[in-house]
């Protein structure tokens, strides 16, 4: 039977910030205590290794035969956002899986976009088309983000409203659409969120779509006098 590894838990940071001195002190204490494994759930900005306190401390640890595992601060979809990438550490990050609570938006031009939502239709998805409108068609910043009161005066009654993420939380936008008379909502990501989707409990039929899908839907709305979409 393999011997047990010496595992200890250290608090590296105190207060809202994480000073380099605290991180280095904690890692030095772990090395001095003779642990076999160090696991660090801190991701700093990318800097050269000689300026990276975790890279420096992990080098000292592996010289003592200690295995070092670090979390990565991956701010995709942009390139080069993974952190803790020193070759001497195991870098661990979240990945994708094949499970999602799907809610599909099918446009009047037959293009389909799979999104996610906890609001699921009863039985088979509806094939009935409803009018589709972009909340930012009045060119107001608050309107396109569907913040409270921003849809007043807009004709959204019974329509599916395309909103953009920002300022307020994802689930706060649904009541705004509903109070304005909207029948359903498509919530599109901004570019920084890319293809990351969340299955939220909305107050009306809704689906959250990627930034790329949102751009295509906006282009479709601008291409026809009667944009339509099926309820999800």
UniProtKB/TrEMBL annotation:
Positions of transmembrane segments: none
Domain spans labelled PA: 131-217
Chain ranges of the Peptidase S8/S53 domain: 1-124
Annotated region (Disordered), positions in chain: 114-133
GO annotation, biological process: proteolysis
Name this polypeptide is given: Peptidase S8/S53 domain-containing protein
UniProt keyword list: Glycoprotein, Hydrolase, Protease, Serine protease, Signal
Pfam family, one: Peptidase_S8
Organism (species): Lactuca virosa
SUPFAM superfamilies: PA domain (SSF52025), Subtilisin-like (SSF52743)
One GO MF term: serine-type endopeptidase activity
InterPro entries, alphabetized: PA_dom_sf, PA_domain, Peptidase_S8/S53_dom, Peptidase_S8/S53_dom_sf, SBT
Family membership noted in the UniProt record: Belongs to the peptidase S8 family.
